[in-house]
Description:
By secondary structure, the protein is of the alpha+beta class. Helices cover 25% and strands 29% of the residues. It starts with 24 loop residues before the first strand and ends in a 23-residue tail after the last helix.
Amino acid sequence: MAVGKNKRKPKKGAKKKIVDPFSRKEWYDVRAPSLFKNSYVGKTFVNQTAGKVLASDSLKGRVFKVSLADLNKDEDRSYRIIKLIAEDIQGNQVLTNFHGMTFTTDKVKSLVRKWQSLIEGVVEVKTNDGYVVRLFCIGFTKKRVNHKKSNCYAQTSQIKQIRKKMVDIMTREAVTVDLKNLFQKFISESISKQIENECQGIYPLQNVYIRKCKVLKKPKFDAYKLSEMHTEIAAKEDTGAPVAPVQSTPTED
């Protein structure tokens, strides 16, 4: 081996220049549909546009999980998680659409108890605006009036009837509305209340919820429909009526 200096070998004292990774980031505001009281979700960042890689392309398809308590300012609904997906970028605003809904794990576990039957129903339906969604319903039996047994188990035939009722009601309610109105029904618990009322004749139910919703297929992207979903009627701030100036009356000496 020839004795000499290796010119390709880096110097011992040379240090790699440390660059702050956040110096190359851009920040965007995430907006939820106008269905909720609070449309501002938060902020998200992405690498700046470099060459052919656009920042907007990196943002599209990003999924955000937000608690309904933050969106509707209602702490009692904190167990429901809404999934929003970024579909369009306007300036520094990220416009999102509905991507799914689920329950927190602790809420589902708190519902499961002994001495009762758990009944679940699953169905795939297509909304009238072209979205294919899979809905999951959960319900539990409860004791009838003057019930003497310590448990309230339903028979297999009753469970099958209740499950069929769940599937029929979910299909009927989802087919006639668009995706936005379907999520409105989830928030208001109207479908679960209807299931509970119609199943009273078979076996009394309690804690009936649409616990999960998955968006399986979407129609072709329509920017006009998305912007319609985000339009908000700006409520005029009540500043009160203008006060008339007080006219000073001349005083007699």
